[in-house]
Amino acid sequence: MLIFIKLLLAHLVGDFILQPTRWVLHKQSNKIVSKFLYLHVLLHLVLYMLVLWNLSLWKIAATVAVLHFIIDLLKLYANDMFKNKSVPFFIDQALHIIVLYCCAFYADLYAHTLALFENLDWYLITAIVFVTFPASIIMGKILEGMSNQIETDHKSLPNAGKYIGIIERLFVLIFIVIGRWEVIGLLIAAKSVFRFNDLKERNNRKLTEYILIGTLVSFGLAILAGLLYVS
Membrane spanning segments where (predicted)? Predict the structure, then answer.
């Protein structure tokens, strides 16, 4: 596990701290002929060797560096296939982490992966999944009759309310799991403060009631999931 953590640290430093924006732009424009692509991979190789600090592990560092080059190169040519540029970014990072994992545990990859899955807390994973999109859909069904009576605010970001709800439910679930119920009260208070001025300016009772009901339902679903998990 320590080797994986060290490789991950080197990756984070090389990809996010020691990679200037001009390198990224130059790679996107010049792709395989970009000098910064090769400099970037060389930097990663140096970082891998530094964190491992063991010459006998040079094959791991070299393998990860070569695969890093291949993944980055594929990303440069695949970028234009995606309208949402965050998609290739996350795919790229996921592939890098998979490579780090495989190289770190290459000696007993199957046994370690099997043990990892066997030790997963499936109850917690189910609770986490539930408070994301399933809970959003349930809330939509519960509030469907009320939402038709609320005027749409075109100034809002698309799906902003849905993602805010998902994040707040995840926080509530985490606080319940670690036994910090008092923080949930602070979270509700913080959300109320942010909403207060907006609702005051609108002076719309229906909207206020709708948001209040939605907030209570959202927190209620998260608390229910948390209670079922800890019970």
Answer: 32-51, 57-77, 89-107, 122-143, 170-190, 210-230
Q: What is the pLDDT of residues 136-195, one digit of tens each?
A: 999 988 888 776 766 655 566 777 888 989 999 999 999 999 999 999 988 888 777 766
- Are the C-beta atoms of 67 and 31 separated by less than 8 Å? no
Please tell me what DSSP assigns to residue 121: -
What would the pLDDT profile of 187-228 be if each residue is shown by its tens digit?
A: 888 777 766 655 555 556 677 777 788 888 999 999 999 999
Phi, psi of 230 (to 5 degrees): -80, -15
Distance CA 97, CA 117 (A): 17
Residue 159 — φ and ψ, nearest 5°?
60, 15
Distance CA(52)–CA(110), nearest Å, equals 23
In whole angstroms, give the CA distance from residue 6 to residue 84: 31
Give the pTM: 0.81
d(CA 46, CA 102): 20
| Contact in structure between 218 and 139 (CB atoms under 8 Å) | yes
| 3-class secondary structure, 159 | coil
| Contacts within 8 Å (CB) and 24+ apart, 47-53 | 47/10, 47/11, 47/13, 47/14, 47/18, 48/7, 48/10, 50/10, 51/6, 51/7, 51/9, 51/10, 52/3, 52/6, 52/7
